[in-house]
Amino acid sequence: MKLFIMLGAINAFLAVALGAFGAHGLEGKVEPKYLEIWQTAVQYQMFHAIGLIIVGFLMGQFPDSSALNWSGWLMLAGIILFSGSLFVLAVTAISKLGAITPLGGVAFLIAWVLIIVAAVKNM
């Protein structure tokens, strides 16, 4: 499905841009532990941007797979919840935002399990 390929490419672009911003724009402005948090957010955004692209290509092979469709939407939700909460945490130091991060992690995990389900169903 072209939508997931586009969403993946947009998120890959954003991960590169946000990674550069973190390395050059935040250095010296936030504590080193928050720079590490920023980098974690960037890494997981990029991993799952690639995951979205993979889902898009797989949907081209298996267009009727609801497992793949759900996987793509959960990856996007995971990027927003996991990486998004870490980005905000890194620049605001509001520790309560850390409570949102695991929801994104669970969305990532379910998304990958759904790819396994789709593979088993379509083999």
Topology:
Elements: H1 2-25, H2 32-61, H3 66-92, H4 101-121
Helix pairs in contact: 1-2, 2-3, 3-4
Subcellular location: Membrane
Family: Belongs to the UPF0382 family.
Main location: membrane
Can you walk through the features of this model?
With 123 residues, the protein is mostly helical. It has one domain. Helices cover 83% and strands 0% of the residues. It contains four helices and no strands. The longest helix is centred in the middle third of the chain and has 30 residues.
Q: How are helices and strands ordered from N to C?
A: HHHH
Q: Unreliable runs, pLDDT <50, ≥5 residues?
A: none
Largest sheet: none
User: Using DSSP, what is the number of strands?
Assistant: 0
How many discrete domains? 1
Q: Radius of gyration, rounded?
A: 15 Å
Mean of all residue-level pLDDT scores = 96
Proportion of helical residues: over 70%
- End-to-end separation in angstroms reads 19 Å
Using the alpha-carbon principal axes, give the shape.
elongated
Strand content: under 5%
SS-based class:
mainly alpha
**Count of alpha and pi helical runs:** 4
Family: Belongs to the UPF0382 family.
Pfam families: DUF423 (PF04241)
Protein name: DUF423 domain-containing protein
Subcellular location: Membrane
